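Technical note accompanying the year-one report. For the benefit of new consortium partners, we illustrate the data format agreed upon in the data management plan: each record pairs a sequence with a structure-token string. No post-processing was applied to the example shown here.
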Amino acid sequence: MRDRDGALPKICAHCVNHQGERLERQLERALAHERMIRERLLACRESESRAQTKLEEANKKVVSALASRGALAVRLVEAAERSRDHGCAAQRLAVDEYVVRWAENHRQEERRRDFW
């Protein structure tokens, strides 16, 4: 307690060492700790939200890129089917097993999308 003129009295070494045992000090530490935890939790939630947004944007780009690649494969395969006697590099690419598989997967995906 403060004395009459407002100065804090000197505390002996034993009392200074044990001030943390007072209920008021324990409550202050608990409240400060709770405040710190709440601030960090809020920061974590904001960081998670930003990460989720970035993940969703990246997934949209991946889906778009794959759809574009599939559509290109379909166009290439269809063009090759229309002129089978043409022997250019694009024709050889259009009959490549990998490109044909991409085109077929894209066609199946479009059919599923149209169905639903």
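Partners are asked to follow this layout when depositing records. The mean pLDDT is 84.
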